[in-house]
Amino acid sequence: MKEDIQWYEFVINNAAEIVLIFGAIFGSIKLLIDWDVKKREISFTKIQENKLIEAKEFFKSYQSLRNSLQFFFYQTRHGTHKDKVFDKIRDEIQENYIDFDYKSMVLKLFMEKKDIQTIENIMTNCELIKIDIETWHIYKYTSEKPENYKGLSEVKAEYFDKVLPDLIREIETSLRGSYNLN
User: Fold this and answer.
1) pLDDT tens digit string along 2-51?
2) Distance between CA 72 and CA 135 in Å, rounded?
3) Alpha carbons 96 and 38: distance in angstroms, whole number
4) By CB distance 3.0 to 4.6 Å, which of 57, 60, 65, 91 could disulfide with 100?
5) What are the residue ranges spanned by the domains of the chain?
6) Residue 89: which of 78, 100, 104, 74 has the closest Cα?
7) CATH architecture of 50-178
8) pLDDT tier, 165 (very low <50, low <70, confident <90, very high otherwise)
9) What is the pTM for the complete model shown?
10) How many angstroms separate the Cα of 44 from the Cα of each of 105, 112, 115, 129?
């Protein structure tokens, strides 16, 4: 009659083969995990690179829009008041606003919810600047001004000097944080 081999005797007698099998299994699992981690790392790096490119385009577009709004403001305040001049400025603002809106939509794909809100606030405030300057043009010679009427000095002090720089700083801080540059 054949002796029953105990499991521990089997393990002892075949230890090299068992270690080899387990080594192959765990080695294969480690290769799969390393491959997945590397793939995710490459994807994250690509996303961060694209985010940086889109942020650069966003800021360039913002500068163009802000400059056109400032030109409208200074032309209103100090320049000639010809319709032809203002029509050209309005067209430029509209083009810059469309470009900024597009660049903002793309950047929002990479941003967190609070940053998306900040970008939307920038867009809203740029539109408010244009509206307030247009309102000034409409009511500059009347004594019956609307309740929320802002003079040109208020527009500059509120939007150009305070609100927009603060909102842009929020976006810059968020972007630096996402790249661990704080």
Assistant:
1) 566 687 888 788 888 888 898 889 988 988 888 887 777 777 788 888 99
2) 13
3) 40
4) 65
5) 50-178
6) 74
7) Up-down Bundle (1.20)
8) very high
9) 0.74
10) 20, 15, 19, 38
